[in-house]
């Protein structure tokens, strides 16, 4: 308990840092993932090719390599002086968006084709059909895989600590360097991650129950 009580403010800041990076990168991944999923099912060939390339490249690139690009290449090209929070959010968000995209695309494929054909017969555009007809029906199917993806995102956020962002893993390294028993440090860190992942699971279970419909 001494490890936790003596460094309670630092543990609190690390916990909040993990929450912040998880929430911001999850939001970025969700927006990009839905957009790229729309590209992948688009009737426009260049958009489909872009969506396929996005998913193929990001899903097959190690996350650590994306962090290296975000921290050492992006500031030189786009965002000079960007904070570690912004750069870590970009790396995590872009990487996770490829998995969100595939989950959303799988959900779109579960919607009967007749739904889209009926919408088109009423004169609705592709974007209107996707946003008002297909995605609302696909949401229930997409929720379970999204829960797993965002739980994995929470654990992946530990890589941000290796690049200097103040989150739980970064705090663990600092306390270990001070000579504290590594087993107790990892115990409290693991419990903090469990709290976050259980909260994500609970939120998605609630959403599944609220959005459950007879099919």
Secondary structure elements and their pairing?
Blueprint: H1 2-6, H2 8-40, H3 45-59, H4 63-72, H5 74-77, H6 84-110, H7 113-121, H8 126-156, H9 158-162, H10 168-177, H11 182-211
Helix pairs in contact: 2-3, 2-6, 2-8, 2-10, 3-6, 4-6, 6-8, 7-8, 8-11, 10-11
Membrane topology: Multi-pass membrane protein
Organism: Streptomyces glebosus
Main location: membrane
Give structural notes.
With 215 residues, the chain is an all-alpha fold. It has a domain at 20-167: MetI-like fold (Orthogonal Bundle), CATH 1.10.3720. The chain is 83% helix and 0% strand. The chain is built from 11 helices and no strands. The chain has helices at residues 2-6, 8-40, 45-59, 63-72, 74-77, 84-110, 113-121, 126-156, 158-162, 168-177, 182-211. Helix 2 crosses helix 6 (84-110) and helix 6 (84-110) crosses helix 8 (126-156). The chain is globular and about 70 Å long.
